Amino acid sequence: MRNAIALLITLMFVMVISVAIGFGLREFKKASNVVVQEDLLYQSSMVLDDVLVMLQSSPDLRRLADSNSSDELYTFLQSSQYLPFEIADEKIILSFESARSRLNINDMDKTNEALFRDYFNRYMVGSSYVDILKECMRKNQVKDEYNNYTSTLFDTNPSLFREYIASKKHLEKINNYYINEYGDTNLKNVPFDQLFSYEKNANIAIDLNYITADVWELILGVSKERAEHFYQGEGSYKALEDLDLNEDEKKNLRKFQTTFFAPYLLVKIEILKETTTARIIFKYDIKLKRGYDFVFKI
User: Fold this and answer.
1) What is the per-residue DSSP string for 202-238?
2) How do residues 121-144 score in pLDDT, each as one tens digit?
3) Can you name the residues that pair with 93 across neighbouring β-strands?
4) 72/184 same-domain check
5) Same domain, 239 and 275
6) DSSP string for residues in 68-88
7) Residue 97 has what pLDDT?
């Protein structure tokens, strides 16, 4: 009996020690991950500084800014889509694309609202969704009137920003409300990442040389096949005549701010260290040599 009790106590003691060791290892791993993340955050800021200096001193970008050439921009983007390199124990991937390839969602107004409704209707999304988007843009509200809402979005989310749609996460909150309120899961099929950007300034021109097929589909009110046709001409457009639009398409296009040369880059930096990844995304004004709209993710 004494031997059995002693054995039981020993087993319990071993179990307690094992649990303690396991807990300690788990906490040590967490602490190690925190250290790695903090170190990666510091390294990310250094990499970002180096990338900004590189952009500001680049002769290619200086020539591009001086020439105002869509051909120069196309050549640069084609050669800079994927640039991997290593620094010490870190792998870094740098890539560039046009910062004017998506439509600013805040561009929606009375003149082009019908095209937004038509686009979402193709995905079987109810017209109420566009009404909710309008409520999230102060420009659509009556001056000095702050409660003329038809939905309960701001009753459900009283702290939700309502001046304009400021980010992808902001739109996701709006989308979640719509899906829960109306039970319309068709909204999940809309390719938002290929469609919208989020800018406070609603007068930013999209670059017709780089907009996505989904943007073509929305702004022209055309089929996916027709939109894909325009998308395939990436980088080749110099003037409206190059697009060979019909009259309806021209009429729709005039409802948006467009250009054939927009010297703005969307810069993406991915930094990999051990099992942790840091991502930096920002926009870069080639002419002003200035970065803005920085986003850090670890």
Assistant:
1) TTPPEETTT--HHHHHHHHT--HHHHHHHHTTTT---
2) 999 999 999 999 999 998 877 665
3) 84, 270
4) no
5) no
6) T-HHHHHHHHHHSS-EEEEET
7) 95
